Amino acid sequence: MADMTQADPCRLCGGETTSIFTRTVLGKHRVDYFRCSGCRSIQTQKPHWLSEAYTSALALVDTDAVRRSVDNRVRVALYRRLFARKSGRMLDFGGGFGLLCRLLRDWRIDCEFIDHYAAPGFAEPFRVKTIAADTYDLIVGFEVLEHLPDPATTLTAIFEAGADHLLFSTELVAEHTGPDWHYFAFDQGQHIFFYSAGAMALLGERYGYGYRNFGNLHAFSRAPLGRMGLPFFGLFRKGAGKFVAEFVFKLAFHIRGIDGARHDSEVVLRRPSSRT
Questions:
Q1: What percent of the chain has pLDDT over 70?
Q2: What DSSP letter does each residue of 151-174 carry, written as one string?
Q3: Structural domains present in the chain
Q4: Using an 8 Å Cβ cutoff, are 12 and 152 in contact?
């Protein structure tokens, strides 16, 4: 029987943790999983295997990454239309190869992205290296939070950037969740922190944001979300409603003759660095 790893404090709230099970990660590392007595999140021991897990920024089994970006474009555009400033700048945190950023910019949404691990991709002229304070109205991070080795530090930087709205996606861990939960993704080794509903509420309280849960989508806002917009967002962010919303957005942009891709091409060509 393997020796139990010492229980470190929770990497989100600093609470005491207790080992709940041990599993093999990446087919070779015996890893202990701990539950926090405070926020009730689950975390791995300190993840020493991440350099192996990230030989590619995109997990090989993540075959729906493109579809997810297309879906998230609708969710972001809808959220922005209903709750945020339509003219505000936004940031995609952990934006990978920049596909979501590129899709949003095609709809003339002023989006930038940050990712320290992904290779150059679809929106390289709009990649930033740091999260500038008081710059963004909306910061999003899709399927990113569960990858953070030190969520307290990273999320502090994101929340303290001063955006009015933050929108994240991640699956929440429940009290009854056992080691058979698919989201632990032992074979990939990239998922290392799993948030409870209480942890999400704690984040809102810690940084002065209201919190709303929409399934695996988590919205933090400085002001309450408008009551008139909530049922529309719930209806059109997924399933058949999402396709209706996507059609409406595409139709509106075609009628108005807006071509964000062409606009960005002209902007990049006018930059001095593009001619060198």
A1: 89
A2: HHHHHHHHHTT--SEEEEE-PPP-
A3: 65-256 (3.40.50.150)
A4: yes
Q: Which two tokens stand for residue 182?
A: 């698919």
Find the DSSP H helices in the chain.
50-53, 65-82, 99-106, 151-159, 197-207, 229-236, 239-256, 260-270
Sign of CA dihedral 34, 220, 260, 73: positive
Find the mean pLDDT for residues 54-78. 79
User: Residue 25 is which amino acid?
Assistant: V
Q: Are 218 and 168 in contact (CB under 8 A)?
A: yes
Classified as helix, coil or strand, 127 is: strand
| Cα–Cα distance for residue pair 200/202, rounded to 1 Å | 5
d(CA 30, CA 40): 22
**pLDDT bracket for residue 55 (50, 70, 90):** confident
Query: Which 8-state DSSP code applies to residue 88?
Result: -
Q: pTM of the predicted model, to two decimals?
A: 0.89
Q: What mean pLDDT is predicted for residues 8-16?
A: 96
Look up residue 21 and give its two tokens.
Answer: 């099970």
Cα separation, 134 vs 142, whole angstroms: 21
Contact 33, 23 (CB under 8 A): yes
Cβ proximity of 103 and 115 under 8 Å: no
| Cα torsion 196, 201, 203, 206: sign | negative
Neighbour tally for 273: CB within 10 Å: 7
Mean pLDDT, to the nearest integer, of 179-196? Answer: 96
Strands across the sheet containing 29-36: 17-25, 29-36, 42-44, 193-194
